[in-house]
From TrEMBL:
Pfam family, one: Trehalose_PPase
Family from the record: In the C-terminal section; belongs to the trehalose phosphatase family. In the N-terminal section; belongs to the glycosyltransferase 20 family.
Species name: Panicum virgatum (Blackwell switchgrass)
Protein name per its UniProtKB record: Trehalose-phosphatase
Protein's UniProt keywords contain Thylakoid: no
Stored PANTHER family: ALPHA,ALPHA-TREHALOSE-PHOSPHATE SYNTHASE [UDP-FORMING] 11-RELATED (PTHR10788:SF46), TREHALOSE-6-PHOSPHATE SYNTHASE (PTHR10788)
GO molecular function, one term: trehalose-phosphatase activity
Length: 815
């Protein structure tokens, strides 16, 4: 595929152009269609794009069997989200799964096994050496990244459940992600395939994939929480991970909180703002729009109903009903994990029996624990704590034939779990932090489907749910609790057991309606459609790769963009007699983050050399005041200056300053300044800049989120109080500025020329002949004008954006 990689934007300017390709036709079906009298002669429609689902593990189970091919019997693991989402994809779309083998079969890696799994299960394994996989998964992912995403900071090397950051483990994480990219490279058709990457294990994969395929259609869904920016910013490689997510076209989260934290991290770490339009959230990143999607995963309704209809389930229901006859049954199902709050749940059960003696001998909490997904001190600690608390509670309140807390640690079949769900009056989830947790969804459906198990009574259920679980916003009828408040959880459990049946039915109906309509198929279909929408402009833009390592990014430019090179400039430059050169100061002539804003001796020397050519007219254009600019550029005798966005202009050092033809009425400052002062006092790090023609409120040193919020409020406030004044209130990057109104009748340089250069052109044409060629050098997105006030100017113009690419709306040429 035609593409170009560069180290930075300067290298991009000097590189050769790459022709814009046209979309590659979709693959035709592999089976030939033959016309028959019973079938139309029109050609078959093209096959839909292939979906490539990438996850850490393949959706497979592997049972050892020496007689089976490769020593294992492989079957589909229908309980994984990676497999269940297929139900929401187009039926005719091919689906390919990429991931590592189940742990039991990890050593059976071979090309023959790959071909076997690809042919029989549409699965392509990624082979990682055992030591690399251990460092990648059990080292960096589960013992550093996983705890941190769940708000657990590794404060000491011996912190329970978390390891301090280790560069060697991070390199293993990158090596594993690179191996996934290598596997994708072997099979991917980047012009056609849609790639869907799952979860935090593969956070770096979008960057490696984008390096190789700039136009790849990449979606990423994070199944874990995304912590607040205060937590995320503690990661030493935080910028790498945020940039990696921004290399995807669509990034999905379960809840608005997770998405909000991600947007805040983008703002604080990379200075990126987002926009919300027609229900979609987008982040502009080097010419690309990265879409942010918020939608929790649902459950597989068909799979649950198949479990309910199994004969074994009915037998299990009868056993459970007999064992807990006359009891008030509550159910909890959790992984053995530090964040599931199992110990807190048991303490709440103890408090319930203390506060409500009438429930002793009647209330029972059945806790099913799923096997841990990793090993470590934290797992053993959770198990020991759960056993100790349950044993103490049972010893204190238990009687012959009555056990308050039933802890089921061994393997529990899906049919047995379904029986407990169907029999329980209440489901209790007390996780202190969880990405989503679909257990309440499963409980709701199985309570609804209990008529298939012989229960034809009106359906009802109650859920006691931690407010820190991702599914909490979706289940508005649940009793939400703070799991850290044991007394509150105990009272919620009591309220659930005492709730009138009519209210239980109403809550249950509300939950079931949501869960049944927002299943995993709905989630997958919605994500798939939004991914196609996010990628629809891929072939209408040119793409260049810039940067090395994890700093790599793709610059997307419009089809009308043409690289401005020396070969383009020199012919026009040499054959013209009058040249206008416009140089923006901050961010172009001088770096924007420079502390010393005065021009260097090298800058002065270059400007003087340009001014020595009698054919050149050179202007520095800036929003700064004329006194400051006059002092800085005093050594440049022939240099023109446009100060305060063109309100003051000077053709050369010996020429008096000219001002706009507008009336010099600045009484509006008496109204605007007190308002700005009020916001300055309320916003730490903000300041007011007084200019002769303008007032500017700066907030670049303030907290990014608070400063942005205050800027929006200040903008509205000033627009209201200055509505009848001859001024314009505008918001720029970290500023709110009040300027005199600009005449619409002024000549414009060209479509993208911003307001600051217009008086320079007027002065230029007043003092000499109209220039034959104009060269503009400015940072993009700075002081961008209102396009409706612009009109083309008949100059041969060359525009250049110094910090990021020029958009199609601003120029047709750029470096």
């Amino acid at each position: 595929m035609p593409s170009l990689s560069c180290h930075n934007l300067l290298d991009l300017a000097a590189a050769d152009e790459v022709p814009l390709p046209s979309p590659t036709p979709l693959r035709l079906p592999r089976v030939m269609s033959v016309a028959s009298p019973a079938s139309p002669t029109s050609p078959s429609p093209p096959a839909p794009p292939r979906r490539v689902i990438v996850s850490h593990r393949l959706p497979l189970r592997a049972a050892p069997d020496p007689a089976a091919p490769f020593g294992f019997v492989f079957t589909v693991d229908s309980g994984t989200v990676a497999y269940q989402l297929r139900s929401g994809l187009p039926a005719s779309a091919p689906v390919l799964h990429i991931g590592t083998l189940p742990a039991a079969a990890a050593e059976a890696a071979s090309d023959e096994l790959s071909n076997y799994l690809l042919a029989n299960f549409s699965c392509l394994p990624v082979y990682l050496p055992s030591d690399l996989h251990h460092r990648f998964y059990h080292g960096f992912c589960k013992h550093y990244l996983w705890p941190l995403l769940h708000y657990l900071l590794p404060l000491t090397p011996s912190s329970l459940g978390g390891l301090p950051f280790q560069r060697t483990l991070y390199h293993s994480f990158l090596s594993a992600n690179r191996a996934f990219a290598d596997r994708l490279t072997e099979v991917l058709s980047p012009d056609e395939d849609l790639v869907w990457i799952h979860d935090y294990h593969l956070l770096a994969l979008p960057t490696f994939l984008r390096k190789r395929f700039p136009r790849a259609k990449v979606g990423f869904f994070l199944h874990s929480p995304f912590p607040s920016s205060e937590i995320f910013r503690t990661i030493p490689v935080r910028d790498d991970l945020v940039r990696a997510l921004l290399n995807a076209d669509l990034v999905g989260f379960h809840t608005f909180d997770y998405a909000r934290h991600f947007l805040s991290a983008c703002s604080r770490l990379l200075g990126l703002d987002y926009q919300s339009k027609r229900g979609y959230i987008g982040i502009e990143y080097y010419g690309r729009t990265v879409t942010v999607k918020i939608l929790p995963v649902g459950i597989d309704m068909g799979q649950l109903r198949s479990v309910v209809s199994a004969p074994e389930t009915g037998d299990a229901v009868r056993r459970v009903a007999e064992a807990y006859k006359g009891r008030r049954l509550m159910i909890g199902v959790d992984d053995v994990d530090l964040f599931k709050g199992i110990g807190l749940k048991f303490l709440a059960m103890e408090q319930l029996l203390v506060d409500h003696p009438e429930l002793r001998g009647r209330a029972v909490l059945v806790q099913i624990t799923n096997p841990a997904r990793s090993e470590g001190r934290d797992v053993q600690g959770v198990q020991d704590e759960a056993r100790a608390i349950s044993a103490r509670v049972n010893a204190r309140f238990g009687t012959p034939g009555y056990t308050p807390i039933v802890l089921l640690e061994g393997p529990v079949t899906p049919q047995e779990k379904a029986a407990y769900y169907a029999a329980a009056e209440c489901c209790v989830m007390s996780a202190v932090r969880d990405g989503l947790n679909r257990i309440p969804y499963i409980y709701t459906v199985l309570r609804q489907e209990s008529d298939a198990l012989g229960d034809d009574a009106p359906k009802r259920s109650v859920i006691v749910l931690s407010e820190f679980v991702g599914c909490s916003p979706s289940l508005s009828g649940a009793i939400r609790v703070n799991p850290w408040s044991v007394e509150s959880v105990a009272e919620a459990m009591n309220a659930a057991l005492r709730m009138p049946e009519a209210e239980q039915r109403l809550r249950h109906e509300k939950h079931y309606k949501y869960v049944s309509t927002h299943d995993v198929a709905y989630w997958a279909r919605s994500f798939d459609q939004d991914l196609q929408r996010a990628c629809k402009d891929h072939f209408s833009r040119r793409h260049w790769g810039i940067g090395f390592g994890m700093s790599f990014k793709v610059v997307a430019l419009g089809p009308n963009f043409r690289r401005l090179s020396v070969e383009h400039i020199l012919p026009s430059y040499r054959r013209t007699e009058n040249r206008l050169i416009l140089l923006d100061y901050d961010g172009t002539v001088m770096p924007e983050n420079s502390i010393d804003k005065a021009p260097s001796s090298e800058v002065i020397s270059v400007l003087n050399r340009l001014c020595e050519d009698p054919k050149n007219r050179v202007f520095i254009v800036s929003g700064r005041g004329k006194d400051e600019l006059s002092k800085w550029f005093a050594p440049c005798e022939k240099l023109g200056i446009a100060a305060e966005h063109g309100y003051f202009t000077r053709w050369s050092r010996g020429v008096p300053w000219e001002t706009s033809s507008l009336a010099a009425d600045f009484d509006w400052k008496k109204t605007a300044e007190p308002v700005m002062r009020l916001y300055t006092e309320a916003t730490d790090g903000s300041s007011i800049e007084h200019k002769e023609s303008a007032l500017v409120w700066h907030h670049q040193e303030a907290d990014p989120d608070f400063g942005s919020c205050q800027a929006k409020e200040l903008l509205d406030h000033l627009e209201n109080v200055l509505a009848n004044e001859p001024v314009v209130v505008k918001r720029g990057q970290h500023i709110v500025e009040v300027n005199p109104q600009v005449s619409h009748a002024r000549a414009r340089l060209f479509y993208c020329c911003w307001l600051v250069v217009q008086p320079s052109l007027r002065t230029c044409t007043k003092h000499a002949d109209q220039p034959d060629v104009a060269f503009e050098l400015k940072p993009s997105d700075k002081d961008r004008p209102d396009p409706t006030q612009s009109s083309p100017h008949p100059l041969h113009a060359w525009g250049q954006s110094a910090s990021s690419p020029v958009s199609p709306q601003t120029s047709s040429r750029g470096l």
